[in-house]
Amino acid sequence: MPKPERASGGRGWVTPAAWAVVIGAAFALPSLFASAFWLYLFDVILINGVMALGLNIILKTGQVSMAHAGFMAIGAYTCAQLIVKLGVPFLAAFALGGAAAALSALVLGRIILRLRGVYFLLFTFSLNEFLFLLSKNVTVLTGGNTGVMGIPPPSLPLVGALRSKAAFYYFALTVLVLASGLVAALYRSPFGRAMDAVRESELLATAVGYNPMRVKVVAFGVGCGLAGLGGGLFASFLGYIAPFNFTFWESVNFLLMNIVGGASFPAGAVIGAVIITPLPELLRAYVVWQQVLYGFLLMLLMRFLPDGLASLLAAPARALLARLRAAAPAPGVDSGRRAGEKA
Amino acid sequence: MLTLASLAQIVVNGLAAGVFYVLMALGFTLIFGILRLVNFAHGEFYMLGAFVVYHLYAQLGMNFFVALAAAAVAVAAVGVLVERVVFAPLRSRELSMLMSALGLQIAIQGIMAVVEGVEGLSLPSPVQGVYRSGWITFPYDRLLVVGAGLVVLLLFYAFITWTRLGQALRAVAQDGDAALMQGIPVNFVYTAAFAIGCALAAIGGALIGPVFSLQVYMGQPALLKAFIVVILGGLGSVPGALVGGLVLGLGESAFATLFGGLTSDMFGFLMIMGILLWKPTGLLGRAEA
Amino acid sequence: MGRVLEIAGLRKEFGGLVAVDDLGFAVDEGQLVGLIGPNGAGKTTVFNLVTGHLRPTAGEVRFRGQRVTGLPPWEIVQRGLARTFQSTVLFGESSVLENVLRGCALRAPAGRVAGFLGSRREEGMRTHAHELLSFVELEAVQDERARNLPYGHQRALGVAIALASRPQVLMLDEPVAGMNPEETQRMAALIRRVNAAGTSIVVVEHDMSFVMQLCRHIVVMNHGRKIAEGAPEAVRTNEAVVVAYLGVDDDAVA
């Protein structure tokens, strides 16, 4: 998608202000929907949002990873075992979980990212399955089939343990907002341009000075690192993790979130998480047909909304922002406005 | 203790499994070679074949081989419908096709779970008993799998080599655009390829039904096996499916006898990853342009 | 007037097949050199060897005096040797402007706060990109999706992207393949403009008449070897060249 023209002149504050409103509303949610059911749902949505965002980074370089849940597992198990077995404080364990996932991705990435298209997909599929079987077998590290139990909720300095679902919500939301901000900045940076170039044509990218392998490896490392952080969040939220939490189907879910929400925008990943996460709940009313409906929904989405919701929303959102900008008061003289650029 | 007898047993078991794997993988590789689709729903067609034969043979008392043929035709018909409605509109959008295949897998499994229930069913074999010699023990129902499987494979070989449709399939797998320019009805070929692939899976399911019990979730492990075989032999390569199936069958048999079951699964996936890194196009596959 | 590109003893084997054998020639600063030969002569292989897309079996490539043999394509571009492609290789889904911007990224000045906050860097790139687009006369279609452009415009866009890295040497791979006479003349004029602005150029072409009118120095290849080199008139009447092209393209040998 062509990059949107930058806002310039005195009206550059409108888009950030719009985001601030959205984030503010998100922080206000627990006050409006205080029941245990809603808060649980919101918490899971946030965790999935972090996961989907990580996959979005990998997708942006044109690689479809089916091993995302596997890297989530690396982060989850690392974080959980560090806390439970070694008494490491939460923030350190959380960060180390992300680091472990990122490091594994960087090491593996150098070898596997030369695979393209369907071959990379099949490799990551096998990797996920292999990690799943590994976590069932290497009982000494992972607790085998029974997994890791008794993981305490996150504990932050100054604030203490986040025992309530609302407290966890604020923490997870902060993580998601920070991650989203970093990812958005990354996409707008020269590296973001490199990612787009490598995705659209590796050949041409090499001819204009990019090293595609380096770009893909870095993206893979960052994306899997986020997955590791998501795993840490997941472990400390649920209090219990086992191999069945990290199967191939979880990986498919994260991919689905990106497809449904629209992989070309980081916001799409989060939108996808918001839509996909409650789906099993929504379909629960039809218990017996739940699975069938899910499958049909998937096929319908692929047929009629292949670019995801974000692509549908992008044009009206931009139009709305443009109108807000036109209505917004400009501070003094419009300096720096080029002829021909949009206000 | 590796005696000559146990070695022979490993080989015999391995070949039996191998023939079955080849059947599964053949349909899968055909669909990938022609439609460029990683058919995640392949295991469900295998399952459908088994259930159709169950109803026709075990419940209605039809002759086993007639039921087998009927199952192949019925599942092929489902395949035609699915290809036309789900995949044809998405041609050339590989990721969308893949996700649709996943949706299809979920939907078919879900429908069958409602219709058939989730309990296991047992399908009696048309042949009973065990062949015993000094060296090996071989249940007759497994012999049936091998025998019938070999017949199907021979028929398929004849089809792909000597019939017009078979040659058209090969042409499209080689180069879709060139085939189009030669006047080959490419859309028809796509549908035919998908239907045949599903039929092969259904036959595999029907043959293996008597050996293990039937269950609506039986497609998953079968699909994984197909994956391994196809990657081993080369995505889209028919001889590759043959070689890959036999190699996997023998390899697993040896591993299971010598080391036990769970690790043989991990071995399978390690092998896929190794092959993809060393020679992504598989043992017999052709490098893509 | 130094030698900006020197190729010596270049050799490439594919298994048992020798695609390029003991090839050597040089490009002076500001020159417009043509590399021609019948189909299968090995021109594109030479092209890929020099630009880093293939590793030579033997031989040496020197760019502005430095050895660049076997370096990956992105390092060769960084040193100032850019290329275009024979088939259309573009960022098809992106706009024409975005295509050029991606080429400009290489030479964009690194801001003091590199990375995230680089609005000044971005502005510099945009100015450069607009200059390039007007140079290749594509300013009017800058917002069009690259794959929707007509063929001639796509090839011009390819040139613009290559020029974005401000190369000393630009190598063009069959720039007029598949073009009608009008498009061919426009491309020739564009190439002359680029050369006049100071960039040395190597044109690899199959169309002999195009190269004859455009270049003042020509290298001729056949079966992976150099069979002639010199001014157009000398090359045109060279016996080996006539033999190589005879029966393949009578019209070209005029």
Question: Would you mind describing this structure in some detail?
Answer:
The complex is a heterotrimer of chains A (343), B (289) and C (254). With 343 residues, chain A is an all-alpha fold. Chain A is built from 15 helices and two strands. Chain A has a domain of 236 residues. Helix content of chain A is 71%, strand content 1%. The N terminus and C terminus of chain A are likely disordered. Chain B has 289 residues and is an all-alpha fold. Chain B has a two-stranded antiparallel sheet. In chain B, strand 1 and strand 2 form a beta hairpin. Chain B is globular. In chain C, the strands form two sheets. Chain C has a six-stranded mixed sheet, with helices on both faces. Chain C has a four-stranded antiparallel sheet with strand order 2-1-4-5, covered by helices on one side. The interface between A and B is large, with 39 and 40 residues.
Sketch the topology of chain C as an H/E string, one letter per element: EEEHEEHEHHHEHEHEEHH
Greatest interface (CB-CB under 8 A), with counts per chain: A-B, 39 and 40 residues
Q: In percent terms, what proportion of residues of chain C is strand?
A: 15-25%
Stretches of chain C where pLDDT is under 50 for at least 5 consecutive residues are 111-116
Integer average pLDDT of chain B: 85
Number of strands of chain C: 10
Number of domain units of chain C: 2
Under CATH at level 1, the class of the largest domain in chain C stands as Alpha Beta
**Share of β-strand residues of chain B:** under 5%
Strand order of the largest sheet of chain B: 1-2
H/E series of chain B = HHHHEEHHHHHHH
Measured between the Cα atoms of the first and last residue of chain C, the distance is: 33 Å
Q: Can you tell me the CATH architecture of the largest domain in chain C?
A: 3-Layer(aba) Sandwich
State the distance separating the first and last CA atoms of chain B.
48 Å
Q: Which strands sit side by side, in order, in the main sheet of chain C? A: 6-7-8-3-9-10
Number of H- or I-type helical stretches of chain C: 9
The biggest beta sheet of chain C, please? 6 strands, mixed
**Multimer state:** heterotrimer
